[in-house]
Amino acid sequence: MVKKILPPVLRYFILSIVLLIMAFPLMWMFRVSLMEVGAPVEIEALFNSTFSLESYRSLFSGTNTLKYLFNSGLVGIIVVLGNILFCFMTAYGLARFKSIMNKALFVSVIIVLMIPSHILIIPLYLLSIKAGIYDSYWALILPWLVNPIGIFLVKQYIENVPTSMEEAARIDGASEFRILFQVVMPLCKPALAVLAIQVFFTNWNSFLFPYILTSQDSLKTLPVGLAHLQGHQAIDWQQLMAGSALAVLPVLILFIIMQRQIVSGITAGAIKQ
What we know:
This protein is mostly helical. The protein has 15 helices and no strands.
């Protein structure tokens, strides 16, 4: 309908304006990070100030930014691998083995989705202390190895996958684990890619739970470390934007590389086989 009403030139013009509005904060962040230290953060300074890498040098030399990057990357990768494995296995069991118990378990997954994550702050904090994992990598990893959204997404996708290949594999004598990982899992790559990207983005940008569940500086993730760059009296905007740019770059690159998988995974679950 929009294509019929608006001519191509006008459509591209409107889309360009929308793109500029959405991309301007990102461009502002990168430009401020490349300003001279102490330069005023104003519109005029964006064009008049010279380019400098001093903020990035001071960020790596004066803070534990490399450690924060390592922690965020380590936690994100392990949590993604855990979600791919556990969410996939759980979703396959719920999708393929029909029973009253499985229906009750799936209802429990839906109920968990309705619970705001902030309600879990105090129980998770107390549980991590009692379990002896507070202020460790385990506190940043174990609670997030299974994602109810991931279970729901992969289950809906598996239900639309034909069972003919699984039945053929069973006739050939393949075990259930072989069918699971060598037959079904390759067919679920689009859904698993969406799950991996969503989980990685969530954990990479997570601030509240890593801030509460850790106290050592060596265990801080990048968002928590960036929060400590803000002083009580003044803020070094160039250094803060340099840190923010480092946090955005991996996510931006990953999104550009995986954008086709994101779209195919989201749309494939809506197509009935």
